[in-house]
Amino acid sequence: MTANRANIVIHHVYAAGINGDSGIADWLSYRLTKEAVGVASLLPRIWNPDRLLEFTGMEDVLEVTSKEIRLAEIAVSNNPYVGISELPEQKDQSARLAPMTSFSNTPYWSDVNNLSNMVPMPQSLRLGPWLQLEQRLNELVMRKEELYVITGPLFFIDRLAANTAAAQTEPAAYYKIVT
Predict the structure, then answer these.
(1) What's the pTM value of the predicted model, to 2 decimals?
(2) What's the CA gap between 93 and 89, in Å, rounded?
């Protein structure tokens, strides 16, 4: 990652380090409290541009689909209906690093719909072990009252690849560090 292409965005419920080459969060951190955890079943899950990235000067920040829609282009759009819902190509292939249920009982729950909180993730992982881990953390915070989480994708680096940035857009694995 080139230092001048990296950006950090800080929202009410999370902070994220955005990779300027891939447009995906290299890491995302958040504080989980028992008061913030709630039921998210009726909350809208519509991906939105991250307005904090609008003024960063980054070009091609985040490719949302294979059709080359970029976060930077969406962020400066004058269209009031610019929010991106679950796109056909992404419907089963994207996840929130900061989970909706962990912040659904706060006035800032909509922050988790920002594209800076989105990573590509296979549906089987997102709806299986990853979801179970998030549920266990929500259960744990009810006993501990407060947890700190750092999470993100991991990429293989192929030094022989002609286009390293392109090879790194699909995560090889994911992590969560909890204290």
Answers:
(1) 0.74
(2) 8
